[in-house]
Specification:
The chain folds into two domains: 239 residues, Spore Coat Polysaccharide Biosynthesis Protein SpsA, Chain A; 89 residues, no CATH class. It is 44% helix and 16% strand. α5 runs parallel beside α13 and α9 crosses α12. The protein is α/β, with parallel strands linked by helices and 344 residues long. The strands form two sheets. It has an eight-stranded mixed sheet, sandwiched between helices. Strands 9-10 form a two-stranded antiparallel ribbon.
Length: 344
Amino acid sequence: MSLVDDPPVVICVPARNEERALPGLIDALAGLTVDGRAPVVCVYLDACVDGSEAVVRAASARLPFAVDVAVETGDHPSNAGLARRAAMAMGIARLAGREGLLFATDADSAPRADWIRAGRAALAEADVAAGRIVRRDAAIDGLQSRVERYYDRLHAYRRLVDPVVWEAHDTHHCGGGANLAIMSSVYRAIGGFRPLPFAEDATLLDDAARAGFRVRRDNAMVVETSSRRQGRAPGGLASALRALDDGALPRVAHPFALAWQWREHAAMRFGFSLLDDRGVRTRLGRRLGLSADHVLGVARDCTNAEAFAMRIVPAPPDGDRLIALNDAEDALSLLESEWCEAAA
């Protein structure tokens, strides 16, 4: 897909009782470098019982662009996916059928001044861009920083094993809703954020890839976020930080399981254009324990090699098994050294 000249930009923010955090976000938005037309900010206030609405209304007078506010009332449990979906629906409505760029962030976050410029550049190369999320006071949470460095290394290894042309040279592992940009037509095509209580952001990226869209993780697109211990989503960053505070030792994904999956992604991606050859279909199917006819059936439902690779390769055996961070780092070092020896 390609961008139209100077597409409109809408920044979509869900908020629930964020009276204290919103001024920091608003200051960051006011400082954004804007090339071309000014963005619109859409804030979805999800059953707030504090002064969040007053803060946002007051901010609209000092921000150099339009602010739309939607207020959801009533007493209901927090649901990150529903709230983010509602904020994005405001953005889609604002675009009124035009192609545009939807940027997502959180109320406790602060995009850097060049956020929109970096997001535009990323979406000139891909359909979805996941930017780097940087924690304020990260030095205080050394173990969490080490976990994040491990996952950055793991993603870099993924792109050695399964390179794609749309990935950023300076990439990372993040895929959080605090820093995403997506073309509006792509967002509509995949049905948007699912109404999940957590992991709605990672699910969106998976849905986009399975539909054949290009997902780029780009270090140039940066949002700073808080290191608070109370968050909206169960199993999110806040709970991870609380667990570390309580003395839990980090456990992370085993790199061997993921490496198997990524090798298969690469093989399927490469083989997609050759599937008219039954021998190729047979060989690819044998790798996954599938028949040649099954491989062809999956391929017929896929628009491109990305969709085929993402759909036909199953979750890796033991893919949900977590191991101690020390062991994972050692295992990843072994994979990296084997790759270097093979490439030499």
